[in-house]
Write a structure and sequence with these properties.
Strand content: under 5%
Structural class: mainly alpha
Largest sheet: none
Oligomer: single chain
Shape: globular
Radius of gyration: 11 Å
Order of helices and strands: HHH
Length: 59
């Protein structure tokens, strides 16, 4: 199972983990996330929940 990668993390690796899951660049996911937060489509608490739910590759 793929989780949040150890390399390429900016804050918690959530965007990098989502990018890996959908096979797109982390930069694209970060831009989409930033735009969604700025324009009210995504609440920051959703990011925190994903941070908790998506496992880390640290193990």
């Amino acid at each position: 199972m793929q989780g949040r990668p150890r390399d390429g993390r900016v804050i918690a690796g959530v965007c990098a983990g989502v990018a890996r899951r959908f096979d797109i660049t982390a930069y694209t996911v970060r831009v989409i996330t930033l735009l969604a937060v700025l324009f009210g489509g995504l609440n920051v608490s959703v990011y925190v929940v994903l941070w908790i739910v998506i496992p880390s590759d640290d193990y």
